[in-house]
Specification:
heterotetramer, A mainly alpha (113), B mainly alpha (143), C alpha+beta (256), D alpha/beta (569), B: 143 residues, mainly alpha, 3 helical TM bundles of succinate and fumarate reductases, elongated, C: 256 residues, alpha+beta, Ubiquitin-like (UB roll), Fumarate Reductase Iron-sulfur Protein, Chain B, domain 2, 5-stranded mixed sheet, two-stranded antiparallel ribbon, binds flavin-adenine dinucleotide, binds protoporphyrin IX containing FE, binds iron/sulfur cluster, binds FE3-S4 cluster
């Protein structure tokens, strides 16, 4: 992928995340902080479809943003064709694993129970 | 024989103060980015416990609702606020916004891109992060 | 037998004034062909208020240790030869007065992020070839760039769009201060990026597309994080950091 | 044992002349291999320090004319310039300015978008095209960057050329040391352009880069080429104290005043017409007279000086048009010219003389051309006008670049005189690198260059010159030839001593020529012969190398239109 496309995604995900994370945190503030973390209220949140979708979005955005950030740091740290390939695929794998794992939670918590 | 390339290496990323505030911001941005990534991964794992039922969730919550947990959370809040605020500044700057206009530089040279607008934004980001951390401390330890 | 006793004061042409201080000059000596590590040698040298770091290095070379390897030419900050690390920060030796350093100890080391040739002299091979890669010249149809036609008109304002970037003396200080350069061996670097902008901003040039393509690379412009250290150390007010961000503005669609 | 490389065209020296030649040669044919060899990194050449402007007739519609530029130059030269050569310079120059412009030169512009020109000394029209006061720097950058377009130009950064090899008729190659490794190379080639620049570091108080030593001139001289008119050394009126860095004539072109202790614009006594903008030789002599008559200032270093006053120009003009000298005087002398006059005194600035060439820049050996300050094609005669030197570099860079490239295309190679390489190797390694001596060569250099400053400065006389020559020869006998640094990598101690070695021969040529020329003409002012003597000395001086002392010959001046008349401004 063209580096400019990757970096536009990086900025885009950051911008998207600003909005969504703000909402996510605001949700923590709708109630008393520790109350909001009670199992029941959390599950309730997960059952609320728009919120679940939002969580999924945050998950994707931040995974992409975060792992791309890591990729940037790693390819700046050391160079070499093999190494850079490994970093790139490693980060893609990281994103995939994290998104899959997080999605599992959202799916199971949202619909499974 | 290989000529030593004399790269400053990762040492060059440390000691950020010697080149001024912008370099400190660069360094903090990196640290907070990495910190947040670590937190984020941990967070995804942490919340995954919910699928194992209420007990597992409560156990996990207890693990994090300790003093250390609160301190870590406070740091995360600070990192998040700095990274976000500075991130917005950096995005604008990297798009060429607010970096000054080309023009005749007069000796002694003051680079227009290292201007007070950006310096203020950096300081504000640090300030906001500090405020958020205080607020977080208040909320977390307040009860 | 004829001997001439070394008098350090001879070194500064036409200087008769008497009030001299002295400082300790520490020079990093290293020949990659024969040494395994760099060592510092120390000298005491007299200075006056206009004495520059280059002056004292040359004084040492001429009277105390002729083997000091150092690059210099114009001694007036226009050729870009004498970049080195002075008390920890990259600067031009001929452009740094001892009196500005506020220190009795002056430590000089070769610039970082360049291979060392010997002592203070570093290798610019990669630096020059990167500069060349970015097509640092007016790109236009060849038939248009002959001397047979009068000048392309350019208002003073249009000149100011790129003039400051063409102050670059290719000293390499920016590259040695940049944090990305510290670890990234393939990064284009602030000097060449700023030059890419210099030509794009020139209304006589049509090479924008070519150059944007070159810099849009995994070790291209995106490896700049606006750390600003390049502009901090630039002795000529080029402000590469500004040029780079403006350049990126094109790629991000902020500018046309 | 030497390593050998082959090329088609060698250009030694990478100043304005060398780079312009390289581009022209590359444009002439993409088939020839061109090497630009410089003892510095290519773009660090002394030319980057040129400040004020480049002369050319750009606005005939506004009153300027080619004839006027020709006449000003010839008159400025005190009628020693070859007039056909001057005409060629003037004719070729306008399109060269446009050419540079098309290559990206950031000329300062007028409001209508055309190239700006400023007044310069000795001209009857504002004729110096300028780019702030960093003209040479920008020109160098433009040429260097334009060279990057051509893949058949190769740069040899930091190669010290030690000698020219030819078989008596035709050029064969050079010998050079690659500084980074210390390897001694033979470079074979069909053609050579000598563009090694001026040699002003023969004087200790000088505007030149520290690298402007006479080793380039010396290798031509040793190779049997004639040096022409070396006694004519220009002293620029405004060198800043204490460093000797130049304050451009552009400062006076923009309206700066020269003042003496009484606050008087003393030039009204010497050149009431042009005042501060009289040619440099006249201004420098006037300044020396003022100072020796006790109307000078004392600089804090204890040296006599006068002052250059720019305050009335206003901060804005100074910042816009004289940015570099503002920076220089603030940085190196702690004086902001907007608030305070600058301490200045005449300073060695240019060598009218150089390798003898014809109007095409060709030397007496086939396949060797010379261009730029190193050459003397007699554009400047006895005194160069400001802004005419960068012009000369560019025009003859172009001419020689093209001629040499064409020559290469159908040149035959002749057998290479290998034994000369062995001789050269012995000269520099046995004679200098392993030479014996206990006198610090840097001290010797200081003494020689101080002597030149003292004895062959603005005003000269028989006694001083003869004393100087004697001192020079004494110093030469001293056991100074030694190099303490025995490493091969980046050994500048070695090159410094080779440079000193060349200073001796070239300083001798200057002194001998000055002694012989018993008249005052242009920059060569003899107090014992204060008048110009066209009957006996309206000729060029040629100096040929000989082991004992330079052999001097005379060479006629080409006069086409303008008969010598008395020079008044
Ligand atoms: C301070 C100053 C200001 C000036 N301002 C003006 C002005 O405003 N207008 C104007 O018209 N003129 C001006 N001049 C004059 C003009 O700058 C010079 O005459 C001109 O730049 C000379 O250029 P060049 O190409 O001949 O040589 P240079 O630029 O001197 O280059 C010489 C080259 O030869 C190389 N070289 C020398 N010896 C060797 C060797 N042994 N082996 C390998 N390489 C070697 C050097 O490395 C260098 O690359 C000024 C001069 C000075 C000193
Ligand atoms: C929510 C608001 C966020 C914004 C506005 C934001 C913005 C940015 C920007 C602009 C950059 C590029 C910095 C540069 O090029 O120098 C960046 C880098 C980075 N971000 Fe974020 N980010 C945000 C959240 C996060 C989060 C939550 C994480 C963790 C998962 C994260 C991880 C990273 C990493 C690791 C980098 C690379 C660090 C660097 O290159 O300096 N970011 N961020
Ligand atoms: S941009 Fe400035 S610091 Fe960098 S090479 Fe050019 S002059 Fe030197
Ligand atoms: S220091 Fe480096 S990170 Fe960018 S702003 Fe300058 S190039
Ligand atoms: S010697 Fe030329 S920049 Fe310092």
């Amino acid at each position: 992928m063209q580096e400019s496309v990757i970096m536009k995604i990086h900025y885009g995900t950051a911008l998207g995340a600003v909005v969504l994370v703000a909402i996510h945190i605001l949700f923590r503030m709708t109630q008393n902080f520790s109350e909001s973390l009670q199992y029941e209220s959390v599950i309730a949140n997960y059952h609320f479809l728009p919120y679940a979708i939002m969580l999924e979005l945050i998950l994707i955005l931040l995974s992409v943003h975060g792992f791309n950030g890591l990729r940037v740091i790693l390819i700046e740290l050391k160079q070499g064709v093999g190494y850079e390939k490994a970093v790139n695929y490693g980060c893609i794998a990281g994103i995939a694993v994290l998104v899959a794992y997080g999605s599992r939670t959202i799916l199971m918590a949202g619909f499974g129970m | 024989m290989e000529r030593q390339s004399n790269r400053e290496g990762i040492k060059g990323w440390l000691n950020p103060g010697r080149y001024g505030l912008e370099r400190v911001a660069y360094w903090l941005m990196r640290l907070t980015g990495l910190g947040l990534l670590v937190y984020f991964i941990a967070h995804v794992f942490e919340t995954s416990s919910i699928v194992n039922g209420k007990e597992a969730w409560q156990k996990m919550l207890e693990l994090t609702q300790t003093t250390e947990g609160h301190i870590i959370l406070t740091i995360v809040i600070g990192m998040c606020v700095f990274h976000t605020a500075n991130g917005i500044r950096v995005m604008l700057g990297q798009g060429g916004v607010g970096v000054g206009k080309p023009g005749r530089p007069d000796y002694p040279y003051k680079p227009a891109s290292l201007n007070s607008r950006h310096k203020l934004c950096i300081l504000a980001s640090i300030g906001l992060a500090a405020l958020a951390m205080m607020y977080g401390l208040a909320v977390l330890f307040g009860e | 037998m004829a001997t001439i006793t070394p008098k350090l004061s001879d070194e500064f042409p036409l200087t008769i004034a008497s009030s001299t201080n002295s400082v300790t000059l520490r020079i990093s000596k290293f020949n990659p062909k024969t040494d395994s590590t760099a060592t510092f040698v120390e000298f005491k040298v007299p200075v006056q208020k206009w004495t520059t770091v280059l002056d004292i290095i040359l004084a040492v070379k001429q009277h105390l240790d002729p083997s000091v390897a150092v690059r210099y030419s114009c001694r007036q900050a226009s050729c870009g030869s004498c970049g080195m690390k002075i008390n920890g920060k990259p600067a031009l030796a001929c452009y740094t007065k001892i009196s500005e350093l506020n220190s009795n100890v002056v430590t000089v080391e070769p610039m970082n992020n360049f291979p060392i040739l010997r002592d203070l002299a570093v290798d610019f091979t990669q630096f020059f070839s990167t500069h060349k890669k970015l097509k640092p010249y007016i790109i236009r149809d060849d038939s248009e760039v002959t001397g047979d036609t009068k000048e392309f008109l350019q208002t003073p304002k249009e000149v100011e769009e790129y003039l400051q970037f063409s102050y670059c003396i290719k000293c390499g200080l920016c590259n040695s201060a940049c944090p990305t350069m510290a670890t990234d061996t393939s990064f284009i670097g602030p000097q060449a990026l700023a030059q890419a902008y210099r030509y794009i901003a020139d209304n006589r040039d049509n090479g924008k597309k070519d150059r944007l393509k070159i810099i849009d690379d995994s070790h291209g412009i995106w490896r700049c994080h606006f750390a600003g250290s390049c502009s901090q150390v630039c002795p000529k007010g080029v402000d590469p950091a500004m040029g780079i961000q403006l350049l990126r503005g094109y790629l991000l669609g902020f500018r046309k | 044992m030497t390593d050998t490389i082959e090329h088609d065209l060698l250009i030694v020296g990478s100043g304005l002349a060398g780079l312009r030649a390289a581009i022209q040669a590359a444009k002439t044919s993409s088939k020839i291999k061109i090497a630009v060899i410089s003892k510095l990194q290519v773009m660090r050449s002394h030319s980057v320090s040129a400040e004020g402007g480049t002369a050319a007739v750009l606005f005939p519609e506004e009153g300027d004319s080619l004839e006027s530029h020709v006449y000003d130059t010839v008159k400025g030269s005190d009628f020693l310039a070859d007039q056909d050569v001057v005409e060629r310079l003037v004719r070729e120059m306008p399109s060269e300015i446009y050419q540079l412009e098309h290559w990206g030169m950031p000329w300062s512009r007028r409001d209508d978008g055309r190239i700006g020109q400023r007044k310069f000394g000795g001209y009857s029209f504002p004729r110096a095209a300028y780019a702030q006061d960093k003209v040479g720097f920008y020109e160098m950058q433009t040429l260097y960057d334009t060279c990057q377009k051509f893949d058949n130009i190769e740069f040899f950064n930091e190669w010290f050329v030690t000698s020219i090899i030819h078989d008596g008729q035709r050029f064969c190659g050079i010998t050079a040391i690659e500084l980074s490794s210390g390897t001694f190379y033979t470079i074979k080639a069909k053609a050579l352009i000598i563009a090694t620049g001026g040699a002003g570091r023969v004087y200790s108080y000088s505007t030149y880069a520290l690298s402007s030593t006479p080793d380039g001139l010396d290798m031509a001289y040793r190779a049997g080429l004639a040096l022409k008119d070396m006694e004519f050394v220009q002293f620029h009126p405004t060198g800043i104290l204490p460093s000797g860095i130049l304050i451009t004539e552009g400062a006076r072109g923009e309206g700066g005043y020269l003042i003496n202790k009484d606050g008087e614009r003393f030039m009204k006594k010497y050149a009431p017409g042009l005042m501060e903008l009289a040619p440099r030789d006249i201004v420098s002599r006037s300044m020396m007279t003022e100072m020796s008559d006790g109307r000078g200032f004392k600089n804090e270093t204890g040296v006599d000086c006068l002052k250059l006053d720019l305050r009335h120009l206003g901060d804005n003009v100074i910042k816009e048009k004289l940015a570099a000298i503002r920076e220089i005087s603030m940085k190196f002398s702690g004086v902001d010219p907007s608030n305070e006059p600058i301490d200045i005194r005449p300073v060695c600035h240019y060598m009218m003389g150089g390798v003898h060439t014809d109007i095409d820049g060709a030397t007496e050996i086939q396949g060797i051309w010379a261009a730029g300050e190193a050459a003397c094609n007699s554009t400047h005669g006895a005194n160069r006008l400001g802004a005419n030197s960068t012009s000369e570099c560019i025009v003859w860079g172009k001419i020689t670049g093209e001629l040499a490239a064409r020559y290469v295309l159908d040149a035959k190679t002749s057998p290479f005189p290998l034994h000369l390489v062995a001789v050269e190797e012995k000269r520099i390694y046995d004679g200098i690198f392993r030479g014996h001596g206990d006198v610090n060569p840097y001290e010797v250099k200081q003494q020689v260059t101080d002597m030149m400053n003292e004895k062959a400065y603005v005003f000269r006389n028989e006694k001083d010159l003869v004393d100087g020559l004697k001192k020079l020869r004494d110093l030469k006998e001293k056991a100074w030839k030694h190099v303490d640094d025995k490493a091969s990598e980046y050994n500048t101690n070695f090159t410094n001593v080779m440079e000193l070695d060349s200073i001796f021969r070239i300083a001798e040529v200057i002194l001998v020529g000055a002694i012989k020329r018993k008249e005052s003409r242009g920059a060569h002012a003899r107090t014992d012969y204060p008048a110009r003597d066209d009957k006996n000395f309206l000729h060029h001086t040629l100096a040929y190398y000989d082991l004992k002392e330079p052999i001097l010959k005379e060479h006629p001046v080409t006069i086409t239109k303008y008969k010598p008349v008395e020079r008044k401004y």
